[in-house]
Design goal:
Layout: H1 5-8, H2 12-44, H3 61-66, H4 70-84, H5 92-119
Helix pairs in contact: 2-4, 2-5
Amino acid sequence: MPVLRPFFDYDWRRIARWALFATFVMVIWLLVPVGRCSYHAFRDIPISDEAHPVDVTAADKNRVDSGKSFFGDWMHAIKFCYQRTPLLGQAPWKTNLVVGFACVAFLGFSLDKWDRRRKRIVLADRR
């Protein structure tokens, strides 16, 4: 069987690294709609309620007095965007792909650790 050994002797660490990289790429790809929506919310939320404040120093006084803030409104908009397009709630094939890549990465790192442990030489074993 030494002829077939090069075909079945996988580098599990390399496979796991590529699968982990693919998992990160898929997560970023799945979060792009949330980022796009939150950017539009950031752009559309006015910093001040008044279009042209008379006194520049008191531009946000009404908003501060009422307890509303720009970042509070923006975080609420980001939560709404994520509820509209959640990470694992998009197309089923995208969910399966990201979960599959994560499982391959976990399995690859586990098999690499097991393979390295199996090939380890202990001082008592040397002759």
